[in-house]
Amino acid sequence: PTSLLMRCNAMFFLDEELAYLTPDVYQEKRAVTVRHLEQGDHHIFVRFVQSPFRCDILEDSAEARQNVTGVKEQRRGDMLLVLSDSMMSQVVEGRLASPHIAIPVVNAMPSPLVLDGAELAVGPTGLLLSMSSGQEEVVLAP
User: Fold this and answer.
1) N or C terminus: fewer CB in 10 A for the chain?
2) Computed from CA positions of residues 77, 23, 66, 103, in that sequence, does the dihedral angle turn out positive or negative?
3) Tell me, what DSSP letter sits at residue 36?
4) Would you state the pLDDT for residue 138?
5) β-sheet bridge partners, residue 82
6) Which residues contact 12 (CB under 8 A, 6 or more apart)?
7) pLDDT in tens, 104-117
8) For position 7, what pLDDT does the model report?
9) pLDDT tens figures, 33-62
10) Distance between alpha carbon 42 and the CA centroid of its chain, in Å?
């Protein structure tokens, strides 16, 4: 199968899918879809609520990943597609109000991924990384 990265500005679905895929209506590069298609004819169905309709449909590559997400240094074939957004707590009196941060990712593989750990490769001094209690495994559907 060919791996495609898709980002459209209106709700759409592909072939026989039963649910619309989330549009990137504000052009924030957060609503990215990964699909793995066999060779042949495929159809994209669009709910036209915005004109003009725009849709980036790119074969997975480092350049395509940067184009649809805005995040540099991603490689074709990496299991996770990193999105440009992140969420962390406010700093209050020089300290984080919450110890949690979220880094949104999309499973770029054709099957579910099970994350059973995480490791901080580069970060500021004193920052530690651990899985949340009760979440020894996290499953990311394709």
Assistant:
1) N
2) negative
3) E
4) 66
5) 105
6) 20, 21, 23, 44, 45, 46, 47, 55
7) 888 999 998 887 77
8) 92
9) 899 999 999 999 988 776 788 899 999 999
10) 22
Closest to 80 measured CA to CA, from 3, 140, 8: 140
83 vs 28: CA distance, rounded Å:
10
Sequence-separated (6 or more) residues with CB below 8 Å from residue 24: 7, 8, 9, 30, 31, 32
Q: What pLDDT does residue 50 have? A: 67
Ranges of H-type helices in 6-128: 62-69
pLDDT of residue 6: 93
Could you tell me which residues are beta bridge partners of residue 102? 87
Upper half-sphere CA count for residue 32 (Cβ side, 13 Å): 29
Q: Does the N-terminal peptide bond of residue 52 adopt cis geometry, omega within 30 degrees of 0?
A: yes
Average pLDDT, the chain: 83
- Residue 68: CB atoms within 10 A of its CB come to 24
Q: Please report, for residues 9, 107, 122, the alpha-carbon distance to residue 31 in angstroms, rounded to integers and kept in the order given.
A: 9, 13, 27
Q: Which two tokens stand for residue 130?
A: 């651990």
Q: Is 62 helix (H, G, I), strand (E, B) or coil?
A: helix
